[in-house]
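re: ur msg from earlier - yeah i can do the NDP complex, just paste it... oh wait u already did. ok heres what im feeding in:
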Amino acid sequence: MPGFLSDLTGSFSTSSAQNPTVAIMEAAYADARMDVRYLNCEVPPAHLADAVRGAIGMGWLGFNCSIPHKQAILEYLDELAPSASITGAVNTVIIRDGRLTGENTDGQGFVQSLKTITDPASTNMVIFGAGGAARAIAVESALAGASSITIVNRTGDRGQELAALVDSHTNAQAAFAPWTPGFSIPDGTDIAVNATSVGFHPNADATLDVDTSSFTSGMVVADVVANPPMTRWLQAAADAGCTPLTGLGMLVNQALVNARLWTGQTLNADVMHRALQQALGIEEKS
Ligand code: NDP
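and the outut:
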């Protein structure tokens, strides 16, 4: 006889209504015939403590925390995984025996997605941006063995701070480069990543102020923007003979890592991918 008590996972954020992760997780749990649910919860900052206590009290396996809780959650945690500790930001919490461990799987999702095309170990990377996504990607790529990481950011102070963080806490050599108009990607770059929000729906006509003639064939060019998947940045890269990597893979792989941390099971990435595309109402062209 089937039981009537599901294991619970979910997300705490505000605003939460446009977050498609619930669609990915519920589709993958159902596909694996697991009695686990994922609840997308609207949690304002003043209620974060209650939400965390509620999750512990109800025996949740864990939860994601998204904007604006990625740093505020730290005070409720007992332990931090390395990437969360270095970035100082947590997007996934695992609850075991009432103890809370914080992980940052944004970067892990990116690196897993990247590894479907190339291994970041011993590569030279250029990352545009220095916000939450860029921090996670830079730290995780460094932990995955990237040799050098150049951070390019509109606001110099934030870019310098991220470069210093990666340089001092990992084995990668990291440096900041000012974002000069028509920025030229340095010779010898293996992987170039847009980790800014430029090109995100509904501003899909926007693209990075980068000289696209500095793309070289053989370069892997990635985007964190998942909607639309084929951004102008990626289209220009593909036109120049580079290998484009959309932001969909980062989202799916992050969800895959989260589910593994919570349940110990590896869910079906194809099911997640299809659920995400359906949820966003998009067709991936690549
Ligand atoms: P943040 O607000 O933390 O950072 C935004 C970054 O974009 C900053 O570096 C900012 O530069 C830069 N930026 C914004 N506008 C411009 C512009 N016009 N020109 C140049 N740089 C600009 O955001 P997040 O890092 O959290 O998110 C960034 C993007 O990543 C979003 O689109 C988000 O949806 C996406 N994302 C995708 C994920 C996935 O799984 N695919 C996961 C997480 C995020 P400055 O410092 O100068 O302000």
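cool cool. The CA atoms of residues 55 and 62 lie 7 Å apart. ping me if u need the other ligands too
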